[in-house]
Amino acid sequence: MDVDGLRSTIKEADSRQFVDAWLKWRGNRMVPTRDDMDLGDIKSNLGTLVLFDVVGPDDIMFRLCGSRLRMDDVIDFEPTGRNYKDLTSPEDWPARSHRFMTMSRHPCGGVMTLRLQGKRGGQVTHLECVNLPVATSADPSVPCQLICCNTPLEPKLGMAEPPRLRTFPAVSGFVFVDIGVGVTEH
Fold first, then answer.
1. Is the pTM of this model over 0.85?
2. Residue 147 burial (CB < 10 Å; 0-12/13-18/19+)?
3. How far apart are CA 36 and CA 31, in angstroms?
4. pLDDT value at residue 97
5. Radius of gyration of the chain (CA)
6. 147 Cα distance to chain centroid
7. DSSP labels for 43-55?
8. What region, left, alpha or beta, does residue 50 occupy, with left being phi > 0 and alpha being psi -120 to 50 degrees?
9. How far apart are CA 33 and CA 91, in angstroms?
10. Residues 112 and 172 sit within 8 Å (Cβ to Cβ)
């Protein structure tokens, strides 16, 4: 899927706003730099953004995690500064690592759905997740960071019975997004 296909596929206006801001930041380049980012363009998304430092296949760090995703709303821990591998079940890690390495080094984007269920079979919440690369250096050999917008597909993220996750569940419907370099098949 290309970026135009992504815009027509995503369901939520906040996700489209995030993609439009990323496209504005990058201008005529393949990937925007962190200096290009104007957070005012995505102020309604800030509480649900995650920024990842992709250092290596087993070293994907949460640089920051938006406040609406932390603590009692969704997860039962603070992920900022932690390795994503430590917060992923071992059976899910190979696919997740491959996707993050591909998105940061190829570079390309990704879109998927994350399903969260409350404790003891409670309320289900779905997040539309869009990952896009951001350059941290003019040197193309330096891996990109990934910025992820997690937009609730329900009207409100706060749940009567939060899931209070200890690891991040597998996602469904993952698709790589071609930002101009092509994409891998899987």
1. yes
2. buried
3. 10
4. 96
5. 16
6. 6
7. TTTGGGEEEEEEE
8. beta
9. 33
10. yes
Terminal Cα-to-Cα distance of the chain (whole angstroms):
12
Tell me the one-letter amino acid at 12. Answer: E
Q: Give CA–CA dist 45/82, Å, rounded.
A: 22
- Tokens representing 33? 């730099």
Q: What angle do CA 176, 133, 158 make, to 5 degrees?
A: 80
Using CA atoms, how far apart are residues 95 and 11, in angstroms rounded to an integer?
Answer: 24
Which stretches of 25-170 are assigned E, i.e. beta strand? Answer: 49-56, 59-65, 109-117, 124-134, 145-152
Which amino acid makes up residue 163?
P
CA distances from 58 to 76, 95, 140 (A): 22, 12, 21
pLDDT tens track for 110-119: 999 987 765 5
